[in-house]
Design goal:
alpha/beta; Rossmann fold; Helicase, Ruva Protein, domain 3; 4 domains; 5-stranded parallel beta sheet; 47% helix; binds adenosine-5'-triphosphate; binds magnesium ion
């Protein structure tokens, strides 16, 4: 393998130096950082092929570092270094987008494994960015065939897409993160009479607020400092086609007003201009957030919500798509085999059972990443139970669903005559159940998370949000 640039991030000198030595002998160029902030700055400014990052560091922890790195460089592979025997954390690391994990300490007899893992991760990253480039060059048309699955939940959604694709209706796509909202937006556009015109995507969450207005509507020369030239906005670029407003829940209230006006009047003014422009665009918006709740919290305008929510399409979470995991595993495996020029990788029954039984909090994206890694890391004999991350392999396939109590078995909660605030009631119920799980497990978050069928990070977020504190 040619010389590659590896960044090692660890606050502990001893481990960092040990890794540096191991990888330098492998022929790689090594750079180091002792904390997340330095690592991010490095990745933003230098060409790096792989990051090895310790999970436990003061300040930003390794999982956050990985997430932030992928905001800057989505294809850069990261291997997370965990403490010995912390298999729960390793699964969390994969959920956060790490390529794989490496347990400390780095014993002599594992050096070959470490080196192979490093090579495989680098190769995977290079292939991924090459694919992305080819894909965007091809400008391929995205239809229904890209949406894999035969479950009833997915089927219902597909028939709704089919019905509304070739209409002018505004569509609001909702669903948990990683469920395929962007694929749905593409299917809507490419199955409409607008398919010959552009599908323009704006990620409202990723563009800083002060830039978003000019991104959407364009600006004229001199409109603000730095506006050296008149620039067309994405509304104009989408003229005749579809404008996909992704992560609409992140749009600032200020811009929500302006967007509302465009939706009502189909016209707008570029920043700095008083000349009104007319556009013919179809709007498709998406969010993983609960917009009615944002409305209650006064973070999202109700009038805008009704303008967008003309046709709501809810993308079901993967855990409620019966049978789809197996189809998706086969689909992603076939694609990965083709990319790597491999023969068909097989999956043992036991391994497939575990994959199908896991609740996939990160939905299809998490499954896709997992399958790609498993395909690379598994040996000649295909993917076996032993190839799965430890905590997934140990999880009995029934536990994943054991907690899903059918609604009729839940204790009845009677609606008071005067009604109630649903969000407050649900919030209180959530707080009470989490409190019970924590006190039953003596505040052991892993066990409490299991009792609630949540992943640990989600539980921790909820503990913070609900302001629960351990007894003294
Ligand atoms: N049914 C499916 N069949 C095949 N691939 C899928 C399917 N659903 C999602 N994917 C793939 O999973 C990944 C995530 O999908 P997508 O980006 O559309 O999700 P999303 O809902 O927009 O996520 P987020 O909320 O995080 O933006 C993509 O690589 C997509 O191609
Ligand atoms: Mg998306």
């Amino acid at each position: 393998m040619p010389k590659n640039h590896v960044l090692i991030v660890d606050d502990e000198d001893l481990y960092r130096r040990a890794l540096e030595r191991i990888l330098r002998r492998q022929g790689h160029t090594i750079s180091s950082a002792c904390n997340g902030a330095d690592a991010l700055e490095f990745v933003a400014n230098q060409s790096v092929d792989l990051v090895l990052c310790d999970i436990k560091m003061p300040g930003m922890n390794g999982l956050d570092v990985v997430k932030r790195i992928h905001e800057i460089r989505p294809d850069l592979p990261c291997i997370v270094i965990t403490g010995f025997g912390s298999s729960e954390r390793s699964l969390e690391a994969l959920g956060a987008g790490a390529f794989w994990y490496l347990e400390k300490p780095f014993e002599q007899e594992r050096l070959d494994v470490i080196r192979r893992l490093v090579d495989q991760a680098i190769e995977h990253g290079q292939l991924k960015s090459e694919n992305r480039r080819l894909k965007s060059e091809l400008q391929s048309r995205y239809g229904f065939d890209r949406i894999v699955g035969k479950s009833e939940a997915l089927g219902q959604m597909l028939s709704l897409i089919e019905k509304v694709a070739d209409t002018e209706s505004t569509v609001l796509i909702t669903g948990e993160s990683g469920t395929g909202k962007e694929l749905v937006a593409q299917a809507l556009h490419y199955n409409s009479r607008r398919s010959g015109k552009p599908l323009v995507t704006v990620n409202c969450g990723a563009i800083p607020e002060e830039l978003l207005e000019s991104e959407l509507f364009g600006h004229i020369k001199g409109a603000f400092t730095g506006a050296h030239q008149t620039r067309e906005g994405r509304f104009s670029r989408a003229d005749g086609g579809t404008l996909f407003l992704d992560e609409i829940g992140d749009m600032s209230p200020n811009l929500q007003v302006k967007l509302l006006r465009v939706l009502q009047e189909r016209s707008f003014e570029p920043v700095g201009s008083s000349k009104t422009r007319q556009v013919d665009v179809r709007i498709v918006a998406a969010t993983h957030q609960d917009l009615p709740r944002l409305i209650e919290e006064k973070l999202f305008r109700e009038d805008l919500f009704y303008r967008l929510n003309v046709v709501p399409i809810e993308v079901p979470p993967l855990r409620s798509r019966n049978g789809d995991v197996a189809l998706l595993v086969q689909h992603f495996l076939a694609r990965s085999d083709e990319d790597h020029g491999r023969h068909r990788t097989s999956v043992s029954h036991e391994a497939m059972d575990r994959l199908a039984g896991y609740p996939w909090p990160g939905n299809v994206r998490e499954l896709e990443n997992m399958v790609e890694r498993l395909a690379i890391l598994s040996g000649e004999g295909g993917i076996e139970l032993a190839d799965l991350p430890a905590s997934l392999a140990e999880r009995s396939s029934s536990t994943a669903t054991a907690h899903a109590i059918p609604a009729h078995e839940l204790p009845a909660y009677e609606l008071p005559a005067e009604g109630l605030s649903l969000y407050r009631a649900v919030g209180e119920l959530e707080k009470s159940l989490i409190g019970q799980a924590l006190s039953r497990t003596g505040w052991n978050k892993n066990q409490a998370a299991q009792l609630l069928d949540l992943n640990r990070t989600t539980l921790i977020e909820k503990i913070k949000k609900r302001e629960l504190t351990p007894p003294d």
